Amino acid sequence: MKIIIAGDGKVGATLTRQLSAEGYDLTVIDSNQHVLERSLEQYDVMAVQGNCASMETLLQAEVNDAELLIAATNADEVNLLCCMTAHGLNPKLHTIARIRNPEYIRQIYRMRELFSLSLAINPERQAAQERERLLRFPGFLKRDSFAKGRAEIVELKLDENSKLRDVPLHKLNGIVKCRVLVCTVLREGRAVAPDGNFVLRAGDRIFVTAPAHDLSALLKNLGIVTRKVSRVMLCGGGTVSYYLAQQLLKGGMDVQIIERNHDRCLQLAKLLPDASIINGDASSRDLLSECGLESCDALVTLTGLDELNIIISLYGNSQGVPQIITKLGRLDAANILDTLPIGSTVCPKELCSSNIVRYVRAMKNQTGAAITIHSIADGQAEAIEFLVDKSTLHCGVPLKELQFKKSVLVACISHGSVTEIPNGDSTFSVGDTVVIVTSGEEVIYQLNDIFA
Amino acid sequence: MNYKMIGWIHALILSVAAVFMLPALLICLFDGDSAATRAFLYTVMLTAAVAAALLLLCRGASKSFSAREGLLCVSSCWLVVSILGCLPFVFSGAIPSFIDALFETVSGFTTTGASILSDVEALPRGLLYWRSFSHWLGGMGILVFLLAIAPISGRNDGSTMHLLRAESPGPNVGKLVPRMKQTAKILYLLYILLTLLNIVFLLLGGMPLFDSVCTAFGTAGTGGFGIKNDSIAGYSPYLQNVCTVFMLLFGVNFNCYYLLLLRRFRNVLKDEELRLYIFTAVAGVALVALNLRGVYATSGETVRHAAFQVSSIMTTTGFSTVNFDLWPSFSKAILLCLMVTGACAGSTGGGFKCGRIVLLFKALRRNINELIRPRRVQVVHQNGLPIDEKVLKNTYAYLSAYVGIVIISFLIVSLDGFSMTSNFSAVLACFNNIGPGLDAVGPACNYAGYGVISKLVLIIDMLAGRLEIFPILIWLSKGMWKRQ
């Protein structure tokens, strides 16, 4: 399948990495030759230099033969024009545009219709939603939901005092007093698929599958004390901040935004009359304590500089802020940050590329495609949700009698409104949704791929 | 300065005024009142002659002008129309003194309703009609009327916006539709419609046609000239209640009615100025009615009088059903406060305007917040929309000009030796375009006792109040008269 990626920025590069690893033929368009050369050095792709909205460039990128175009330049209007032009040149083309201007949010569905976009993605908004979900349920580092929110994979970090320290996994359910499943453990930067005899250690990050309604019991029985977040401080007033503040304010939280640029402050004050907008440098300790950082329930660092975000988060931790979220825009090596107490990290580009990857896989095979895909354990494992249909093999057969591929784990089965953490006797039938966790090299395109 | 264009607009305004005098002329003819007929005939001829001369002199004017020309044009138009409009009173001998006649006419056009006449009923009907009609025309604005009918705007320039801004009350004047002519038409159509509705309701209550028309004119313009010596007191309770309701209706921003027509009810319900307006009215009626317990025979009567007087003062109309100067001092204090509050921006009412109070309150709250947290950045919002700093700045300036004018006028008027209450309420009642004040200028008395200087000051106050101060203040500015 031929895919064109227009715009080789943060999102474009992440997509290039992921999609070329999955074996698609990629053509990358960017106006900057240096960026293209970097991509050419790293991945097996073709590069075209030029304006992605011009027909000439698109034809040069062989838009006529392509099946999918992803426009991810930093200008929404260019992305839209690029998709429209390309669609005009090749009416069979699927198009995905990145649209992130808050002013377009309400019309995004209409725009998809009007400009025949297949998908419109907004990384900042997704990142904001992700953070908002974390703040609604403080205690977890990351939450990914499946089966329309009825099942979740949550990330927890084990410290020296954790109740789960030195516990073999088969004793886990006795301690947390509810049925959960540890699907992946991230130890020293490497993802491990654990079995029942695996013993947890301090410093491990574990990914736990649980029905959504058991989450609070899980936290309680693990002795993780959380209180409802009511005061949130956001450092940096970018687009993500705006989306996040909007959602938090809707949830009745008290939101403060610290932003250095006075004009941007005014803009935010116009858009968010209920938030406190503070004009100042978030790296100043005096300002942070003046704004009452110590009494905040959560600190979210969203400035454009990863290093600054990390430093502010570290300071927040030293001041005893219970919940900290750090935005990492560029830094890939999240594992070297494991040792630092900067709370959970969210990376907009990763979030949005997993959405696109899901779409691409669904295009490849129309039946049995994934409903949701979440990348977990720093991208070393994937949790994929499938719908069981008539073409699915082995319906109604207990799991213990089936042969799965080595790296595959069935993490969760939902029958209608009942969500079950499966054991050997569990079965699935047509209409269920199944969540698979895989850490292998091989890509799982459809449900039947999991059987050996 | 584009004097030709200004002259041309004056000519148009005078023609309009001459045409509008014709019904009064007809009424005089019908009544067989030869002195009044002659007075109107002379005035119409004189006005038409001046208009024709101006038209000739200002042929081929370039039809664009700047903000300062707009401001100057509006204020001088009002002055010229008032001077010509007072001539029938002088010519007919009904009000021999020119200053008195001018006071009466300015009071009419600015929808004040302050009178120097002690016996209104003695006036010929044609003059009564003209007095009341000046309220109606002045209420929505003479120039707005001109904008609706005359080809003032050139091919495609927005300079007529300066005229609308200068004449329409409120801190934030905007168009309803893209074309100024259409905006002006919509405003006048709504205005005519509501006035007709008012006349119908009055007729249904058994009021004679002439009385209904004049009373409706007074109500629509929130003017307050009555055609009876006891204002509205002689009419039935039903008619008084009709007046109460319509006074309140004409105190509402006309944009709200337009939004209602567009079926955007939510915007109207959420309008912060309208909410404050309704809240103030209800609270005012409740407090006055409580304070008046036992003064009138039944509680229904108490509430009726309280509601009538509160609406009359708050919408700056100035009708009365009772002599509220005899009320307890708390009620009088409330009425004095309501004089300042005024109606909504974009209505025919005067006063400081509820919208400005909302803005000032929010700006004050922001200032206090900034004292507590100097780094916090805040933007004042109204009706969910951010308010431009320029609008706020204008509102502060308006407040200071308002206070300044009240103080200076009060000092000058005090020279005439009336009581403090009389002088202060006289200034407030004229400046806010209400009409009756308290004590010596109360509803049962009139302004005839003041001297020439005081009357001149009050005339300027009335004009400044109606045109929202700045078109009058610019006459004093040096920059206004400098060549550019």
Structure description:
The complex is a heterodimer of chains A (452) and B (484). Chain A is 29% helix and 25% strand. Chain A is of the alpha/beta class. Chain A has 4 domains: 2-121, NAD(P)-binding Rossmann-like Domain (Rossmann fold, 3-Layer(aba) Sandwich), CATH 3.40.50.720; 128-221, Alpha-Beta Plaits (2-Layer Sandwich), CATH 3.30.70.1450; 231-321, NAD(P)-binding Rossmann-like Domain (Rossmann fold); 370-450, Regulator of K+ conductance, C-terminal domain (Alpha-Beta Plaits, 2-Layer Sandwich), CATH 3.30.70.1450. Chain A is globular. By secondary structure, chain B is mostly helical. In chain B, a hairpin with a 2-residue loop joins strand 2 and strand 3. Among the domains of chain B are: 3-240, no CATH class; 387-481, no CATH class. Chain A binds chain B through residues 262, 265-266, 268-270, 273, 276-280, 287, 290, and chain B through 373, 375-379, 381, 384, 386. Strand 14 of chain A pairs antiparallel with strand 1 (376-377) of chain B, so a sheet runs across the interface.
Number of helices of chain A: 13
**Biggest pleated-sheet summary of chain B:** 2 strands, antiparallel
Tertiary shape of chain B? globular
Rg of chain A (C-alpha, Å) = 23 Å
Quick overview of this protein structure:
With 452 residues, chain A is of the alpha/beta class. Chain A is built from 13 helices and 22 strands. In chain A, α1 crosses α13 (348-364) and α6 crosses α13.
Features:
heterodimer; A: 452 residues; Rossmann fold; 4 domains; 6-stranded parallel β-sheet; 13 helices; 22 strands; globular; B: 484 residues; mainly alpha; two-stranded antiparallel ribbon; 22 helices
